[in-house]
Amino acid sequence: MKSLPYFCRGEVIRGFGRGSKELGIPTANFPDSVVDNLPADISTGIYYGWACVGNGDVYKMVMSIGWNPYYKNTKKSMETHVIHTFKEDFYGEILSVVMVGYIRPERSYDSLEALITAINNDIEEAKVKLELPEHLKLREDNFFTSAPSSSSAMPPTTASTSQTIMNGH
Known about the structure:
The protein has helices spanning about 20-25, 30-35, 110-130, 135, 140-145, 165; strands at about 5-10, 30, 45-55, 60-65, 75-80, 95-105. The chain is of the alpha+beta class. Strand 3 (about 45-55) and strand 4 form a beta hairpin. The protein starts with 5 loop residues before the first strand and ends with a helix.
């Protein structure tokens, strides 16, 4: 995928409410405006990379892009699991991510337990791959140090995907 690493940011919105409740694996969801502007060569599946909430620390992450076949979604989504325990939800905050690599295609599972096992395996694989020097250096990218704290604070000249750029303003 020639578009990797891929940098994007957007406001965290409420998703389907399944990540924390059903799976025990909380996810942060991007709005349609971010999902709809993914490059064509970024296919559905599971990715790994780095994420930052607001102006906070940068953490490892895994992201699911697609329709979540187990749940038979009809709407494509980008759901990021930041590999860190946050004290509270961060809806409305700006999430900045860099997608570094691809783990696997999305697939359906016979049970919720099988899905949870697969996600946990993805998390472990991401933790290992992100320790590679070529991936570690992206944790320090200027993209994260220039992360805005709210969508209204985004400069129109940012090279990353943002509400400002996506809406053509």
